[in-house]
Amino acid sequence: MAGHFLSVIVFLPAVGALALLLLRGEDRLWIRRLALVVSAAEFLLSLLLVRAVPIGSAAYHLEERHRWIVSPPITYHLGVDGLSLFLVILTTFLTPLCVLASWKGITTRVREFFVMLLVLETGVIGVFLSLDLFLFFLFWEVMLLPMYFLIGVWGHERRIYAALKFVLYTMTGSILMLVGILWLYTLSGAAVDGGTFDLPVIQRLLQLGQAGGGITLGQHTEWLLFGAFFLAFAIKVPLFPLHTWLPDAHVEAPTAGSVILAGVLLKMGTYGMMRFCLPLFPHASRRFAPWIAVLAIIGIIYGALVAMVQPNLKKLVAYSSVSHLGFIVLGIFAFHPVSEVGAIYQMLNHGVSTGALFLLVGMLYERRHTFEISEFGGLATPMPRLAAFFLLVALSSLGLPMLNGFVGEFLILLGTYQHHWRWAAWAASGVILSAVYLLWACQRVFFGGISNEKNRRLPDITGREKVILAAIAVVILWMGVGSVMFTRRFEASAGNVLQQMEPARYYEATAPAARPNAFPAALRGPRIPPEGAANR
Amino acid sequence: MFPLREDLLRVAPEAAWCLAGTLLMLLEPFWKKLRYASPALALLGAALGTAATAYPARIGGTAFHGLFSADGFSVFFHLLVGGVVFLVMLASTSFLAREHLPAGEFYALMLFAAAGMSVLAGAQEMLTAFIGLEMSSIASYILAGYRRDSPFSSESAMKYFLLGSFATAFFLYGIALIYGATGTTLLPRMHMETGGILLKLGLALLFVGLAFKVAAAPFQVWTPDVYEGAPMPVTALLSAGPKAAAFAFFLRISLTVTAAYDFWFWAIWIVAALTMFVGNLGALAQTNVKRMLAYSSIAHAGYILVAFAARSEMGMAAVLYYLLAYALMKVGAFTLVGSLSGAGECCLDLTDFAGLGQRQPYAAGALSLCLLSLLGLPVTAGFLGKFYIFRAALDAHLVWLAVLMAVNSVVGAYYYLRVIVVMYMRESRPGAAVMVVPAAVRVVLFVSVAGILYFGLFPNRVMAFVSNPGLLSR
After folding, report:
1. Tens digit of each residue's pLDDT (9 = 90 or more) over B161-191
2. Which of A356, B18, B50, B234 is the least buried, fewest Cβ under 10 Å from its Cβ?
């Protein structure tokens, strides 16, 4: 098993889904329990990954490489590094919570629901762990289908419209990415006999350049390839003008769907940017970074402003995602090691916090069957615990110090400021705006007098919900206070992303300590191994 | 004067199919009472004929002084056509019983069509190709009008016949002009250097004839009506068989007479782009599932033409792989839709499929898989097919054609997904009946679903076979 640990991680949920499908009987309780056991086991298993990625290592670990298709040479190549490590754990953490959150809310076609949820988990983890461009694309596409069904079958009123919109938007981007992948493969044929889809190999070839035995892309080729990849990721994120699928998909999806969508699926876009766009097309990334940053900043402010005026609570959370993801994209395209670390950290934070917000909104919906803020008001009186948790999550989302959101946003702004203080200044206004819309929403929903009689006798959180929220609260506090425990595992990878943007010979001539983009020692925290072990 | 034994063995599949067809015609009047006799003989004939492909595969070479080639290329198409015909005949056993149609001639015509298609795929000489084309076409005209009491079926046959005859005429004129210009009808001996305007005209006419047969725009107008009106098993055959055979001959001319290929390049480029758009945009507007699938086969012809435009070994491999995948998905989709449509093919509207996911989960699952493969979602053969076409196109620097194909794939996604939406996300109409899927159809479905998944995950063997440079003898 040791040699196939990542395969086990990727396919365990799918095996669970298959077991669910084959299981006879309509006992819903057992279906739910089996789904919970599988997803919880997956979570525990994925925690073992942490030990596989040593601190300060930017290399891929637990690599698996098998020949799969001979012509063109496609390998089944998996590997985990600091960048993907916590995204995988985030996925496996959120999935059991989604199973728990859907315990009562899903009453029709229960078996199929959990099958889809588990297949989705396999797809998402596969995306994060694939190191072969073809394999990556395969998981990227396969994951669409369960999400499509989750929204389309178990969603709210306008679900079919939202589901189709989601799939068609994503597909437009991804099919162009496929063309890009194939083009890159064709170009790699100049250096490697028969070409290759292997990501580390292609990275190396591009870094070496034609003179070093690798390949060099012409300017326009690089721009087009960058565009093909970036468009797919920007739609997924979603970056400002491409975001219109997101509110529909989020609002119409069932709670579990929204949680996975916001928590993990959007991260696939930002992950893709860091994994592919920056290292493979550094010149184009640099060239277009200002434009992308402008779009990201527009997204931050626009998303926040639109969230502010939403009468629908779920839509408010959805637009807050547009705003927060803008921060992440900005951090990535600021090309500063601190902002890259912040971007990765903010991916995790946003997954936890926004996932939690969707879970809480789902809990409100289960009680009142509406998302309209005007229908609520004074809910803290009948359900003080839920209100307390909501406030905690909202505070973490808006970036209160000591909670997780603060660390990520701070690192992004700090890093961005070093290179472009204007970007940071504009983006910082998003922090203020997010405080406005989140606190205002809290106030309108939970505080003040009870304006609607239906709200007077609402039950507070149940034991099952307590488990979900407690788990999230622990993570929020832990990530807020002990952020170094997380960042030290991926700062080497974040630095590596920037390093890969430089030509290879330049770096081989420079000593590790003298590298300009090394992570500043002041931000490292105390428990970092000595210089030299890092960045290796 | 009697042909050599080897030559006869090289056409053993065609001989077996024709023999079985003739026997069926002769014996059918005598065993009218025996319900299973005709289908049994027909299936046996089809299977034996397909198995007899082993002879040409082993002997190789050309038969009848170079008229007919028994290379790997023709072996591939013999197996493909034989397999398609076998599956379609298996599925039509229950269909014919349901529609109360006579069985004997039906199977016989299918077997003759199979023989014709195989001749076309193996022909290395233009008149032989013409004979093959006519054998398969005439059988298909009759089959399209097989439900004589249905006006749609008659309309379908009439349209197919008239437009098909036009196409054949173009084809024949093309052959005549090319013969006039080059002095030969044997493909390997054809030299294009000497030909002037006569040759160009001939090649253009030949191209038009072939474009008709593969249903490429702007020569696709007959396709939706013919496919919609023909009985469902015949539609399955038409969309998978004759198209594959016509593509085979197209490919053979193109690769043997490379000057023709170069001459056709821009025509292929434009026709490919046009066909994709016409097929996909047309399918968007359809509410009848059968008609939608008909438009989708036009679109798929466009995708295949993209690989054609690549003009490389890689392109040829992509075409062959795609034709295999395409045959599996179309046969699966059409046969299943046929048995779900009920007596007289009454229930073909999208709304009739509402709630199918709950009424008949297995049927809906199988149909979804076929549709997802047509759409090109990974893990299916349809995806790898598209992938290989993209690769061939990009390898030949046809970036824009690849981008157009990408755009079309997204448009296609909309109408395939719409059927899945209806099946899983809408409630059944009150009184919607559960349609029995007969055992024979289930076998066909199993084969196509298993094939779609198998070739989608493990394409190595097929690809090794079709990308062998010596596949096509020149």
Report:
1. 999 998 899 999 999 998 888 888 888 887 7
2. B18
User: Is residue A528 domain-resident?
Assistant: no
Overall average pLDDT of the A72-89 stretch: 89
Burial of residue B461 (CB within 10 Å: 0-12, 13-18, 19+) is: exposed
Domain membership flag for residue A261 = yes
Strand partners, B69: B62
| Minimum Cα–Cα distance from A151: chain B residue | B425
* Bridge partners, A132 (sequence order): A198
Q: Structural domain boundaries of chain B?
A: 5-466
Q: Which residue does chain A place closest to B317, by CA atoms?
A: A71
Count of the separate structural domains present in chain A? 1
Within a domain: residue A534? Answer: no
Mapping DSSP to helix (H, G, I), strand (E, B) and coil, where does residue A321 land? helix
Average pLDDT over residues A492-520: 61
- How far apart, in whole angstroms, are the C-alpha atoms of residue A273 and residue A268? 9
Which secondary-structure segment (H or E) carries B63?
strand B62-63
8 Å CB contact of B399 and A183: yes
* Chain A positions in Cβ-Cβ contact with residue B390 (cut-off 8 Å): 178-179, 182
Burial of A26 (0-12, 13-18, 19+ CB in 10 A): exposed
Chain B residues touching residue A175 (CB < 8 angstroms): 406-407, 409-410
Count residue pairs from A and B with Cβ separation < 8 A: 78
The residue range of the domain holding A419 is 2-523
Confidence of residue B340 (pLDDT cuts 50, 70, 90): confident
User: Half-sphere exposure of B433 toward its Cβ, with a 13 Å CA cutoff?
Assistant: 10
Question: How far is residue A534's CA from residue A499's CA, in Å, rounded to a whole number?
Answer: 13
Residue A426 resides in a domain: yes
pLDDT at A536 over 60: no
Contacts of A185 in chain B (CB under 8 A): 391
**Ramachandran assignment for A534, one of left (phi > 0), alpha (psi -120 to 50 degrees), beta (any other):** beta
Q: Measured between alpha carbons, how far apart are the two ends of chain A, in Å?
A: 27
Q: What is the 3-state secondary structure (H, E, C) of A239-271?
A: CHHHCCHHHHHHHHCCHHHHHHHHHHHHHHHHH
Tokens of B142: 């009759």
Would you list which residues of chain B are within 8 Å, Cβ to Cβ, of chain A?
Answer: 358, 372, 377-379, 383, 387, 390-391, 394-395, 399, 402-403, 406-407, 409-410, 413-414, 417-418, 421, 424-426, 459-460, 463-464, 467
* Interchain contact A182–B (C-beta under 8 A): yes
Looking at the partner chain, which of A70, A163, A172 has a beta carbon nearest the beta carbon of B460? A70
A334-377 pLDDT, tens digit each: 888 899 999 999 999 999 999 999 999 998 888 888 888 888 88
Asked if A163 lies within 8 A of B406 by C-beta distance, the reply is: no
Quote the tokens at residue B446.
């199993």
Beta bridge partners of A61: A80
Contact B374, B381 (CB under 8 A): no
Which of A 183-212 lie inside 8 A of B, CB atoms? 183, 185-186
Rounded Cα gap, residues A115 and A118, in angstroms: 5
Counting DSSP H helices and E strands in chain A, the numbers are 23, 2
Q: Which residues of B touch A149 (CB under 8 A)?
A: 424
For residue B246, what pLDDT is reported? 92
In a 3-state reduction of DSSP, which class is residue B123? strand
pLDDT of A510: 44
Q: Which residues pair with A343 in a beta bridge?
A: none
Name which of A22, A71, A135 to mutate to probe chain B: the one with the most chain B Cβ atoms within 10 A of its Cβ.
Answer: A71
* Cα(A410)–Cα(A414) distance, integer angstroms: 6
Contact yes or no for A175 and B383 at CB 8 A: no
* A439-488 per-position pLDDT tens digit: 988 888 888 777 777 777 888 888 888 889 999 999 999 988 888 888 88
